[in-house]
Design brief:
By secondary structure, the chain is α+β, with helices and mostly antiparallel strands. The chain is built from seven helices and eight strands; from the N terminus they run ββαααβαββαβααββ. Helices cover 27% and strands 19% of the residues. Helix 1 crosses helix 3 (84-95) and helix 1 crosses helix 5. The longest helix has 15 residues, at 36-50.
């Protein structure tokens, strides 16, 4: 899937995380303001760490992933989290549950081999959304996410969510100079940040390094510091999360 944002963690103190959401995709040029968004980021970071997918990449100019520990340490952190089972449930509320099945659709145990008794097909037990695949262990099918339950969870978990004004946004005069290089900017014309919905802005941003791309600072406070147990200053990762439930 195409990355939507890059997330940087600047500090984690008690129940509050501070960081930045970098806008890297012109199709989603604004940071969601609903509390489901920061909760989905916490779940996404948990999933990346639990699967060993968050690495320390040598790509500062391109905004590559950063993690101050090894993949094994990240996995150890998630496996020892007090709220690890809740994160697993939250992940399923966003993206749905993986149901292991045989080639002909019968339910399997978590080992991906043992057929559950009594023999039943997944479609007869679960509401399925059509998603399916193979993860190297077994075939699986998917249940749908649950937007209402996830939204309620976000309301209970995220007690404060602040977003700063956008930084690094090109000026309207800069965009005008790109589009009409032979027409100087009228000094009488009010200048200011350009509209990130304008694709001309992204033509201007395209050659710029990651550090010069637009971003918003965020502050997220949660009801229990355990929801931040896996987060650490210096983390950075690309995410497909927007708070939308599949």
């Amino acid at each position: 899937m195409t990355s939507i944002f890059t997330v940087s963690v600047d500090s984690v103190e008690g129940s509050t995380l501070r960081g930045r959401v970098h806008i890297i995709n012109p199709d989603v040029p604004s940071v969601p303001r609903e509390t489901v968004f920061p909760l989905s980021l916490l779940v996404d970071a948990w999933w990346h760490l639990d699967r060993g997918f968050l690495q320390d990449e040598d790509d500062e100019e391109g905004g590559g992933d950063r993690y101050p520990f090894t993949e094994e340490q990240g996995s150890d952190i998630t496996s020892s989290m007090r709220l690890k089972d809740e994160f697993s449930k939250l992940y399923e509320l966003i993206l749905g549950k993986h149901i292991r099945v045989t080639e002909d659709g019968f339910l399997l145990a978590d080992d991906g081999k043992t057929v559950l008794e009594p023999r039943r097909k997944a479609k007869d037990v679960y509401e399925l959304d059509g998603g399916r695949g193979h993860d190297g262990i077994s075939r699986f099918v998917m249940t749908p996410g649950n937007a209402e339950e996830f939204s309620q969870g976000a309301a209970d978990i995220v007690t404060l969510y602040d977003i700063s004004p956008y930084r690094n946004v090109p000026l309207r005069s800069e965009v005008a100079a790109l589009e009409n290089p032979d027409e100087p900017w009228d000094p009488e014309e009010p200048d200011g940040p350009a509209d990130l919905d304008d694709y001309a802005v992204w033509r201007l941003l395209e050659p710029r390094p990651f550090a010069e791309l637009p971003y918003a600072e965020i502050a997220v406070t949660v009801s229990d510091a355990g929801y931040l147990e896996h987060m650490v200053a210096g983390m950075r990762w690309a995410t497909t999360m927007t708070g939308h439930v599949c």
